[in-house]
Amino acid sequence: MRLSIGQVHRNVLALASSRSCFVLGDRLSFRMLSQPRAAGFHQTAWRGGQIVEDRGGPLTLASLEVQNRVEYGNKEKMARSGGPKQSLRGSSSLKVKPSVSSLNVKPVKTALPKSAGIKKTLKVDEALFSAKSFEELGLPPLLVDQLNKEGLTAPTEVQSAAIPIIAQKHDVVIQSYTGSGKTLAYLLPILSEIGPLKRPMGQDNSDKRSGIEAVIVAPSRELGMQIVREVEKILGPNDKRLVQQLVGGANRSRQEEALKKNKPIIVVGTPGRISEISAAGKLHTHGCRFLVLDEVDQLLSFNYREDMHRILEHVGRKSGTTSRDILGPLARRSERQTILVSATIPFSVIRAARSWGHDPVLIRAKSVVPLDSIAVPRPSLSQTDANSSSPSNSVNQAAVGSLPPSLEHYYCTAKAQHKVDTLRRCIHALEAQTVIAFMNNTKPLKDVVFKLEARGIKATELHGDLGKLARSTVLKKFKDGEYRVLVTNELSARGLDVPECDLVVNLDLPTDSTHYAHRAGRTGRLGRKGIVVTICEENEAFVVRKMRKQLAVPIKPCEFTEGELVVHREEDVE
Ligand SMILES: Nc1ncnc2c1ncn2[C@@H]1O[C@H](COP(=O)(O)OP(=O)(O)OP(=O)(O)O)[C@@H](O)[C@H]1O
């Protein structure tokens, strides 16, 4: 069942850079979506919000404060962490003294700003959000069997929300915190429609499709390969050739040969490589039904604009149609379903999704909202000085809610030359077993590895200057527990799934709170415990405190002495 969409008055298919994001298209007005009648959907109410100009600050969905909570009845609420409870391998041994923190730390006040406009709410059947099994979500039996074989028996919250909505053919934006299972949230509805595990076709609905039916784009090779492995796992060993990786750094002719020989139905790759092979005429995606942009806010940044433009123009677009097609942009859009995914969604992504989307909706763990109902957030005073060197104190709405609730955040100060020693003490005090330490540049990584090794801690480095093989070997060894610490840069901040990671350390300050959120999200995956420690210099501590406000999470001051984590009162350090 589909929501009807209003008339598009204007669609400018132009690459317009807006701060870090480019926006394809814009439109002046949309009629409110009609009430969907599909099971589980009930439009409840909307209140018109004030539309104001996007001034380019950290404007995001949450800043709209759309009242999009699902209204629960008396039934038990799902745990915020979502998803099935798992054993806390590795993380359970983390040594934290909660009594210390609860006694000594003053709670941080993190008030959200006033709403810029509250609009329409869709009420989604509570049963979907509390689905106990994949069957309840209507996945085909073969797919459910395969998931069960892999030990996946219950959907996470975001999967419960996304699977039925994507099955209804909506274009969607999925925003849910790191490690909440977003990958399967989009893969499962896709694999319900294509490939050997899909739902049986009706008699008059014979499946005549062939060729590539889904294109998944990710910003890094590591994330691309991780998604490939996830698809392979579900397809099983006999059908794993149906997914093909097209990531940069690997041999391109081999990828092209594999495309010809294996005839995959899904390709997963990085923007550069996908658009390169497409431009060479070796990747035929015009009949493609699904386009997924994983880590969409990064993919729509200026760096990728040309490759992403090509991908957006070609995937799922019948050849011969042009942007001036007489059928208009909506008809062209409907040829593919577009799925945009990230833990952090700035408003520029919403705007782009509205422009491309066919009945686009925003899916979060407990809510589904038509994108049309989201008003442009009102810029706060401090957002207008977003370019100033001092970070704003206002909440970064793109990143609020992007962090798993199970995370604990601390910061401590140390002189630059003592940071590695502080890291060592931190690892020992917390008894962390699988640690990711982030720095901002590539060069110093080796030095930190050397110093850690000299102190008896097995460590390795991961960065973009390593070849593809070296990168995957390092990652595999780290995941296998051969190294205790992975010292890395921003390359590993997004999407990397090392479930055992129990500690993330910032040895350099992340550039902003969005970067903090993605780095932090490498631990505390799927409801596990995780600790994030930022080691900064004394004169940088104010930046951490500002990030704390922007993210609306407590980041507590601490130190590591005599093998213990000691948490300070805030007033002792301010
Ligand atoms: N229903 C499920 N049951 C058990 N494990 C699951 C389920 N769904 C996902 N997982 C596992 O949870 C982990 C995190 O999932 P995933 O990488 O998709 O998170 P994410 O939300 O995309 O995180 P990020 O924002 O960091 O990219 C993975 O190891 C995945 O295999």
UniProtKB/TrEMBL annotation:
<keyword id="KW-0067">ATP-binding</keyword>
<feature type="domain" description="DEAD-box RNA helicase Q">
    <location>
        <begin position="132"/>
        <end position="160"/>
    </location>
</feature>
<dbReference type="InterPro" id="IPR001650">
    <property type="entry name" value="Helicase_C-like"/>
</dbReference>
<dbReference type="InterPro" id="IPR014014">
    <property type="entry name" value="RNA_helicase_DEAD_Q_motif"/>
</dbReference>
<feature type="short sequence motif" description="Q motif">
    <location>
        <begin position="132"/>
        <end position="160"/>
    </location>
</feature>
<dbReference type="InterPro" id="IPR050547">
    <property type="entry name" value="DEAD_box_RNA_helicases"/>
</dbReference>
<feature type="domain" description="Helicase ATP-binding">
    <location>
        <begin position="163"/>
        <end position="363"/>
    </location>
</feature>
<dbReference type="GO" id="GO:0003724">
    <property type="term" value="F:RNA helicase activity"/>
</dbReference>
<dbReference type="GO" id="GO:0005524">
    <property type="term" value="F:ATP binding"/>
</dbReference>
<dbReference type="Pfam" id="PF00271">
    <property type="entry name" value="Helicase_C"/>
</dbReference>
<dbReference type="Pfam" id="PF00270">
    <property type="entry name" value="DEAD"/>
</dbReference>
<dbReference type="InterPro" id="IPR014001">
    <property type="entry name" value="Helicase_ATP-bd"/>
</dbReference>
<keyword id="KW-0347">Helicase</keyword>
<protein>
    <recommendedName>
        <fullName>RNA helicase</fullName>
        <ecNumber>3.6.4.13</ecNumber>
    </recommendedName>
</protein>
<dbReference type="InterPro" id="IPR044742">
    <property type="entry name" value="DEAD/DEAH_RhlB"/>
</dbReference>
<feature type="region of interest" description="Disordered">
    <location>
        <begin position="74"/>
        <end position="93"/>
    </location>
</feature>
<keyword id="KW-0547">Nucleotide-binding</keyword>
<keyword id="KW-0378">Hydrolase</keyword>
<dbReference type="GO" id="GO:0016787">
    <property type="term" value="F:hydrolase activity"/>
</dbReference>
<feature type="domain" description="Helicase C-terminal">
    <location>
        <begin position="422"/>
        <end position="566"/>
    </location>
</feature>
<dbReference type="GO" id="GO:0003723">
    <property type="term" value="F:RNA binding"/>
</dbReference>
<dbReference type="InterPro" id="IPR027417">
    <property type="entry name" value="P-loop_NTPase"/>
</dbReference>
<dbReference type="InterPro" id="IPR011545">
    <property type="entry name" value="DEAD/DEAH_box_helicase_dom"/>
</dbReference>
